[in-house]
Write a structure and sequence with these properties.
Blueprint (H helix, E strand, L loop, with lengths): L12 E4 L4 E10 L6 E8 L16 E4 L3 E4 L2 E4 L18 H5 L11
Parallel strand pairs: 1-6
Antiparallel strand pairs: 1-2, 2-3, 3-4, 5-6
Length: about 110
């Protein structure tokens, strides 16, 4: 198993396996008890219509970690596993408490 530091994920672009640019890694949300990463919290691309995607109260995309196909210079997301509102029941809940426990307290995108 290859280990990747959370800090290395800052500013990494998220693209679906069908070529849709989703945005950039903003943060990670994890289960406090198990340490398991639940979702990637992403700043959406300005051209992305987020109306069908699961977002938090701040408008950030919530992408289940199970949708990640590969991590490299970009993160490839399996579009069939992407959290959309019609599949909301499959996404682990991200509460205000969980958001406060994100790794890095907010991985800011370089501007």
């Amino acid at each position: 198993m290859v280990k990747i530091m959370a800090s290395k994920l800052r500013d990494v672009e998220l693209i679906t396996d069908t070529g849709i640019r989703l945005g950039w890694v903003y943060d990670l949300s994890f289960d406090e008890e198990t340490g398991e990463i639940l979702v990637i919290v992403a700043e959406p691309d300005e051209d992305l219509d987020v109306s069908e995607f699961v977002t938090d109260q701040e408008g950030l995309l919530l992408i289940p970690i199970s949708a990640v196909k590969s991590i490299g210079e970009v993160i490839i997301i399996d579009s069939s596993k992407l959290a959309v509102k019609s599949k909301l029941k499959h996404l682990p809940s991200v509460t205000a408490t969980a958001r406060e426990k994100r790794l890095g307290g907010g991985l800011q995108r370089k501007g």
